[in-house]
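Hi all, posting the design record for the shared folder.

TITLE: backbone redesign
STEP: 1 of 1
STRUCTURE INPUT:
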């Protein structure tokens, strides 16, 4: 664990609160939305975090997809718009009740076009939240789809911090069903696919003021860094159509969190993007048992200067959390 003088901010933390569940249940006809979850109050979350040595939580709503019973609520459903608005109001109220202890990523209903842009503006400008959260695909549709470009252009104008969280992969469900393969391989694949597509589509290059935080140390991006550039280097068809520099030039500007990663993987991310682009995160409560303590040990095991470790534990996140407000 870091010494007591080192502040710790967990920037990958999911809220599953009974109070939020009640508010969503009252606003949308989805009474069983949290049936699969263990609900924990904000006070209990802070107490647990403090015992583990964490000073502040930069949290988001629970990870989609959402279910009522066994039926998935699709992102295009009007219920998702209501859920997002209700959740964001609640996240803002938590941040106001616990200043300096909670920061929040707004839930954004990206599949709802102009309504998603309006909700992003409201979350950042009126609710004063610290960023937004997007998933890696929406009903199988990639984030580089033309219909999402106006959203990213506005997010770029707002200098938005975007926490990207993987969801059910666009791959064979049969192959991923057993042995927890969806989480082991599917989620890293989703993050990698989404971000490399955004890079080659020119979204990252043409929207340079976006600050993406990539879950789980960026999936496989640091490991296949050279391979990502291979089509560009080889001048393959379409590889230069939307970008002027290799794809990794844009990926190097992104931030990579430490959730569900070990020291060797984090060192590779450090080699690719530097210590000022790595953020401490745990994926609580979806991570492993004692995820916070384990992740702290992995950061401590990194062969980097103490100042870099301190920035990973909090400095980078604290600076980034104010970025969307510099409008």
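Okay, here is what came back for every position:
SEQUENCE:
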């Amino acid at each position: 664990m870091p010494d007591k003088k080192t502040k710790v901010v967990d920037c990958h933390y999911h809220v599953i609160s009974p109070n939020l569940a009640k508010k969503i249940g009252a606003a949308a006809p989805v009474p069983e939305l949290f049936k699969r979850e263990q609900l924990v109050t904000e006070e209990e979350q802070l107490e647990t975090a403090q015992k583990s040595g964490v000073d502040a939580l930069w949290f988001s709503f629970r990870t989609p997809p959402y279910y009522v019973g066994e039926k998935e609520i699709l992102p295009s459903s009007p219920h998702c718009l209501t859920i997002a608005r209700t959740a964001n109001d609640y996240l803002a109220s938590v941040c106001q009740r616990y200043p300096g202890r909670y920061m929040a990523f707004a839930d954004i209903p990206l599949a709802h076009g102009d309504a998603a842009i309006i909700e992003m503006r409201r979350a950042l400008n009126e609710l004063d939240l610290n960023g937004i959260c997007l998933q890696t695909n929406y009903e199988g549709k990639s984030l580089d789809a033309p219909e999402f470009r106006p959203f990213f252009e506005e997010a770029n104008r707002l200098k938005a911090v975007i926490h990207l969280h993987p969801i059910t992969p666009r791959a064979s469900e049969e192959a991923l069903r057993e042995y927890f393969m969806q989480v082991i391989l599917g989620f890293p694949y989703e993050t990698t696919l989404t971000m490399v597509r955004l890079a080659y589509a020119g979204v990252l290059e043409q929207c340079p003021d976006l600050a993406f935080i990539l879950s789980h140390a960026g999936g496989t991006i640091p490991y296949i860094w050279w391979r990502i550039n291979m089509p560009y280097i080889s001048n393959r068809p379409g590889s230069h159509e939307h970008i002027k520099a290799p794809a990794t030039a844009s990926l190097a500007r992104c931030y990579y969190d430490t959730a569900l990663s070990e020291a060797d993987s984090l060192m590779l991310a450090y080699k690719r993007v530097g210590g000022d682009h790595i953020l401490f995160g745990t994926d609580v409560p979806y991570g492993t048992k004692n995820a916070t303590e384990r992740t702290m040990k992995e950061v401590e095991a990194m062969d980097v200067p103490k100042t870099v470790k301190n920035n990973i534990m909090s400095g980078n996140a604290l600076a980034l959390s104010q970025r969307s407000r510099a409008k």
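COMMENT: The first strand starts at residue 9 and ends at 15.
Let me know if anyone wants the other runs.
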